[in-house]
TrEMBL record:
GO BP term (any one): methylation
Lineage: Eukaryota, Viridiplantae, Streptophyta, Embryophyta, Tracheophyta
Keyword Aminoacyl-tRNA synthetase among UniProt keywords: no
Superkingdom, natural source: Eukaryota
S-adenosyl-L-methionine among keywords: yes
Protein name: SET domain-containing protein
InterPro entries: Rubisco_LSMT_subst-bd_sf (IPR036464), SET_dom_sf (IPR046341), SETD3_SETD6_MTase (IPR050600)
Amino acid sequence: MRVLQDPVIGLECRKLFEDGVVDDRFLIILFLTVERLLKNSSWMPYLDMLPESFGNPLWFTDDEIEELKGTTLYRASELQKKKLKDIFDSKVKDLVKKLLLLHGNTDSEVFFQDFLWANAVFWTRALNIPLPHSYVFPTIEESETCIPIDTLSETSVDNACGRTSNSINNLKVNEVDLVGNRFDNAIGPEQEETVWVEGLVPGIDFCNHSLRPGATWEVDRKGSITGIPVAMYLLSAEQTPVPNQELTISYGDKGNEELLYLYGFVMDNNPDDYLMVHYPVESLQSAPCSDAKSQLLQAQNAEMRCLLPRHLLAHGFFPVGSSPKDCNNNVKAAKVCNYSWSGCRRIPSYLSELIFPEDFLAALRTISMNDEQIYQVSSMLEELVGSEEKQPSETEVRTAVWEACGDAGAFQLLVDLLQMKMMELEEGSGTEDSDSQLLENAHIETTRQSTRYNGDLNGSIKKKYITRNTWSAIVYRRGQKQLTRLFLREAEHALELSITEQGG
């Protein structure tokens, strides 16, 4: 709304917005691109304080991006940068020139790096803010109507301005809460409707992330605290704040994959790290009985991919670490299969230690079935439904599939997927131990985005200078290797138990 009310380009932006040429996120990114090119921008004091470059993979050099080979982010970052470049060439360049002309600026030339900068500013700093409806949609003079709420986007134009729930096909989707939603502070019930909007808040957006944040941000709707209605302020998490100490906030429970892709940093030994595992759709399409399996997958609402958070390992066959999250109960609650359909199969003894999501295991069971097992499932469901014109429930289909094939085939597929993932991760960069050795002997170059590594030289061991981006890439990929190793051990043990108990 601030962009739409701009005295110079507001009317043109409103037309672009109402015609569907841009959405709200894209509009802010476009505005940032234009304002940075203006020498007399009223936003320049703020823009001058922002970084000139960023640490996410879209800003990596060719050598730095090679450090991500084998990881999810390697291919995702390449695709995203190409997509942004296409958007810039086909849309952004002309739109920026048009808006600059409204300012009387005919000299400035816009480059892809300007758009990439604006895109990074928005996606690394935007907050998801609860505001009163009248503040978000004020009455605008000479305008009979306001922008309808339902035109505010939930995804970016052409999915090109950053995150969508599957923008890289693998990011945590909560699979992904709103990016930049650093700390959602619910506000008390008010008579006026609350609208959640994304925006930049100069000052608060300078706060770094911490697992133990020193502050939260809140909206002062009535101005009773700040003296200014609908002002935002930081509230110390400490009863007695420590002077001269950096104020941090929480960006949310995000793994290194998200932190690196969205914000450009990682956390060593991140407790919120996770592993994404997926079964390739193209492999299913070329598999025997692919049509029948696809129908069964749809009937079960099975998932072809799953997130495996680190904290699941605290509840497996080989408990690692501890977790305050009650995640295991959620996993167990998802196990809705009735394991006594015909009494032919016993309830697995390993059920309480199984940490893999049931929705994903349901998909793997279905994919692993042979022709005879598919026929058996079909027969059981036909017998269940009989002559009635009804569809079997999701639970009934899952139960029939399990009755026909058990768990061994699913666990074997899971082991294969994890072994393949480990091979891809290690192919270009070596083992988890080799990454640890690199980090131990690394000395981070001091750049605008980084700080010098604090540590002695360990006698005769020579430290190697690496960039902050390279360090982040190694920390991220080492964490992926570690999680793959630990989840593979869980899957291999589950496979052994399933073969022993169910005879394969």
